[in-house]
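To: structure subgroup
Subject: Chain for Friday's discussion

All,

I'm putting the inputs and outputs inline so they're searchable in the archive.
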Amino acid sequence: MPHKGRVCLQSVPLTSLAVDKLAETKKQEAAMHEAIKSQQHQQKQAKEQLLHEQARQYKAEREYKLELDPQGKHSKRAIKEQRELLKHAEKAATGAMCEHGVQRCKICFPHRDEAKKHIEHERSPALGSPTEVDDDE
């Protein structure tokens, strides 16, 4: 039972104009949302690209400083990178590359069986267990 002066929304039929207006508003909001989303994605990619470029530049700068003055004081990261480069160069010079272009690929050098990997040994009987006796009498 509706109150006096108030109109129940269920009793008022929606006109096609109101439905069209609502649909148009939803389309506009969806378009705005997509535009904002794509803009944020582009900003994120630009930021990632900038950070990547800066990291690459810092790494090149560290390598250059290390080459200029190998005996000077350098960061731990620069020393570690230099050590890794030397290790890779030494491996490439002494090690034999397989036909796949890798130092020791899993195809040419498969893993050993687990049985061959560990030293085989006989286990003594567990403490408190009865000892085995041969009944050859």
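Points worth raising on Friday:
The chain has a mean pLDDT of 79.
The radius of gyration is 37 Å.

D.
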